[in-house]
Each structure stands twice: as C-alpha cells, then as structure tokens.
Design a protein that fits this description.
single chain; 32% helix; five-stranded parallel β-sheet; nine-stranded mixed β-sheet; Dihydrodipicolinate Reductase, domain 2; globular; alpha/beta; Rossmann fold; 11 helices
Length: 321
C-alpha cells in the first residue's frame, strides 16, 4: 500500500480518497482554506500546517486538489521532494509553470504524474470512443462536445468565481473535452480559435460563464468544444457529444446515459455501454495506460492554448507529437 499525502480538499479529491485503506495509506494532509480542512478532517488523518511538513512525513504520492492558482506551488515541491503526483485539473495556469513541471519530469524519469481526466473512465464516454475507434461511423469529420453545468454562485469558493484564479472555463472545464476529443478520435489538434465571456453575471467581471474552442485536427477534421455555467437550478448538468463521420453519426447524452448510432444499418440505434466506471487512479497505480503522462501534459497545454487564443483573438498553432 503506497503512502499518500493530500494538499487541498476543495475539488475532486474523492477520486483519490475512495482508495484510502484499500490501495492507498493516507498519512496526512494540509489545506489553505477552512472549507478544505473541514473536508479533510473527515478522513481522520493528521492535518499539517504546511506542504513542507507534509512532505517530511515520508510519502510516495502527493495528491493535489486545492485552488487552481495554487496547483503549481504544490506540484513542483512534491516532484522536487521525490514524490509521484496525482493532480486534479488543471495542472497549472501558466506556460512557465508547465515548463518547470515538464523539466522536472524529464530530469527525473522515475517520477510519475497523473491528472484526473476522468471522462476516460466514464462508461458513456468509453462507449462512444469504442464506436468511433471501431470505425462504425467511418472517419470522424466533425465533433461537437458540450459541457453545461450550473454556476452555483452562492456555493462556490471565491477563487472558483475569479477567472484569474481558476484559469477560466478552458482550464477548469473544457480541458476535459479537449483531452477527450484527441483520445476519442485518435487525432491531434493542430490549431485553435477560442472565445469566452460573461453575459449572465454583469455585476462581476471576474466571472466567465461561457466559452468555446474551434479546433482543426491533423487530418483536417474539425471540432467545437464548448461549455457554459448558465444552466438554471432545474437542471444540474447537460453533457453531450455528437460525432459526424463519413458513414454515419454517433450521439452521447450523459444525463440519459445513452450512446446512439446512425449508420447504414439503422437510425438512432442504442449501443450497449460498459457496466462499470473505470477508476483512472486505480489504473494508474497498476501502471496502466488509461491516461498516459504525456496526455496529461498535452491536455493542459491545449487548455493554455485555448486561453491564449481567447485572450488574443488569434489562431493558436499547436505542436503535434
């Protein structure tokens, strides 16, 4: 059982803590906010006052799930100390921070990093990818990925509502869609045009409530990845994917938990989905390849490129491997 320390507790730390006592020995935690400390106290592990004191307890893995603008401040010391890292998305908010993280990983090849790109373990998203990879709808030509949720403004911490601290919708939300686009199609994005704004909360110019990314991939297919935090309280989320291929279409509806295919054999045919959700953390602990380290780094680079494209109004070129 590997020794784990936790930094932060405000975001999707449940992906990690679910394995406490089974795959992971949670030795301690630290958190800057009162809300995060309250979440961590429920784990029954020691709550330490600083990252340095947490690292000094002797850890194999550090899980980072604090405010988005503090990610690099936790990931970099953990790697320097000699720990593997599991980090909620985003990895960091600035290109120079990512440069430093990538340099540390290159200089210490035994170190491993996982970002929680959890769509790769969700049955509906796995099922749609299986359809596309099997060639049932031919080669993908256009993909539309939608990620819509409620803002829940009264419930969110201050950093989450400030795009300067959260990184905005590209890094905090659409990063999932950008990663999934490449994983599902097996192609790489080569250029990005993007926009973002705030139309629902004019009293707070730090909020960003909608964003979209138009992508051209390396086979000249295209995609729109869009997201918004404007759903009313009557609906919690609305995640959808539509893929138009050379021989048909495939449609995912996460709320309905369906994937339907239209091809020469028939219209709107529901496909059988995997019965169990895959734990991306368990897969990583087993040295699986559900989320390769390079994919984690690339997803954050794509989200950074989308942010830069929206800020500049320019087309951003993206390197391929």
């Amino acid at each position: 059982m590997r020794r784990l320390g936790i930094i932060g507790g405000e975001t999707h730390i449940g992906e990690v803590t679910a394995l406490g006592g089974k795959r992971l020995d949670i030795r301690g935690a630290c958190a800057a906010s009162e809300a995060a400390r309250a979440n961590l106290e429920a784990l029954g592990c020691p709550i330490l006052p600083s990252i340095d004191e947490l690292l000094a307890t002797g850890l194999d893995i550090v899980a980072v799930a604090d405010a988005n603008d503090a990610r690099a401040e936790a990931v970099i010391p953990a790697l320097e100390y000699g720990c593997d890292v599991i980090v909620d998305k985003p990895l960091c908010l600035a290109p120079d921070e990512q440069d430093r993280i990538e340099t540390l990983l290159a200089e210490n090849s035994e170190r491993r990093l996982l970002m929680l790109l959890t769509l790769r373990g969700e049955p509906t998203y796995v099922g749609l990818r299986d359809v596309v990879q099997a060639g049932r709808i031919g080669a993908p030509v256009f993909t539309h990925i939608r990620m819509a949720v409620r803002l829940k403004r009264e419930e969110r911490p201050a950093w989450f509502l400030d795009s300067r601290r959260s990184g905005g919708l590209f890094l905090d939300l659409l990063i999932h869609g950008l990663d999934y686009l490449e994983w599902m199609t097996g192609r790489q994005v080569v250029s990005i045009t993007a926009s973002t704004g705030n139309l629902g909360n004019p009293d707070d110019d730090a909020i960003r409530d909608h964003a979209s990314v138009y992508c051209i991939l390396d086979d000249e297919s295209t995609a729109l990845v869009e997201g918004q935090r404007m759903l009313p309280d009557s609906k919690g989320s609305d995640y959808r994917v539509q893929v138009a291929g050379t021989q048909g279409t495939a449609d995912l509806d996460l709320v309905a938990n369906t994937v339907k295919v239209t091809d020469p054999a028939g219209a709107d045919t529901a496909i059988s989905l995997p019965t169990e959700r895959i734990s991306v953390v368990s897969d990583w602990l087993d040295n699986g390849d559900r989320i390769p380290q390079d994919a984690c780094l690339r997803a954050n680079r794509l989200a950074l490129a989308a942010t830069a494209a929206a800020d500049s109004g320019e087309i951003m070129r993206v390197h391929t491997s």
